[in-house]
Design goal:
single chain, mainly beta, 3-stranded antiparallel beta sheet, 3 strands, 0% helix, elongated, cytoplasm, zinc-finger
Length: 88
Amino acid sequence: MRKRQVILRRQEPSDGSTTSSVTVRTVRYAECQKNQAASIGGYAVDGCREFMASGEEGTAAALTCAACGCHRSDHRREVEADVGYERA
């Protein structure tokens, strides 16, 4: 599985200092939480432990799990936020 990094916001200092902050989020999709027995009134998950994209990033297949066939939104999302400071 490939981790994705998203830069949320770059904030330039307003007080004239030479440092700025960058927030980077690493997004990872864990086990599948889709209820496979919802149509019969039960609860059962398929046991898929980790999202693996079926295709290349940027294609429609990248949103489908190769292991269970579910959409990426059916998998538990884990977000790690890192705040870093840079000197200009």
